Amino acid sequence: MNRAVDFFEFKEIEISKIAISHLATSKTKKSKDDLYYELEASIKEHGLLQPIGVGKSKITESSSDFQWQLLWGEKRVSVFKRLERKKIPAMVIDRVLSEQEIEKYRQLGHIKKFSFEEDDIWNVIKEPYLIHGNEKIVADMTGIPFKLVRDTIFSKSVERTEGGQDLMSYCRDIGTPNNISKKIFNIVYNHENQSVNLLKGKELANLLSSTDQNLINKIISAANAYPLGSIKEWVADAKELKKNKESEVGLDIELIEEEDYGLLKMAAANGLTVNEMIRKVLKEKLVTEGFLEEE
Question: What is the β-pairing status of strands 52-56 and 8-14?
Answer without folding.
Answer: unpaired
